[in-house]
Fold:
Amino acid sequence: IGKTGLGYIRTRVFEAVAKVGSEREILTPEMINGLVEEGHALRIFKRKHQIDALLVQILVEGEDKRFYSTPDGLVMKKELQLQGGGIEYEASTVEVKCYAPSKFMSCVLCESVEEIKKVDPGAFWQSVDQIVNTGCPDGYLVYFNPSMPEKYGYKEFHLRPMEIWKDIKLLKDRKALALKLFDEMYKKLTQQ
Structure:
């Protein structure tokens, strides 16, 4: 898990015991730019894929109730009728990144999902985590900068199961280890 992972887990244990959130900078310039611009990128995505409806900013609870995701978009592909009378949907996740020019260019110059994994690992793993938490079979990672002509300012990567199945397994294993470490730390701290 490494030092960064352990630091993250310790912070979550602190929050759980103290019942307060830790101070984190959540409104970075990139996040503010994303809030302003991701709607434009989602409209382009919708048009390119000829989608009638796209759900945006939906909070989805993972299998383990301690994991959540908020994909920027969910593409509803199929409605499935369940035997008990319920409805389930087959969907794809969409994550949009609206980075500053240098980081944006390093991402849009990538040619493959494997290359994006190296150049922008945070966005790659966020997208994989969204796929896992939502139970979607696939997802899209979109890079957008409105200052560029659409031909150059919009690029998407399709994360397909056959390309990322090892990453999905690794993520699930790491999340299981993180939960184990969290539970051990929490128990140790609260039983003193």
About this structure: The chain has a mean pLDDT of 88. The two ends are 26 Å apart (CA to CA). The helical segments are 2-18, 29-48, 101-108, 113-119, 121-134, 150-153, 161-190.
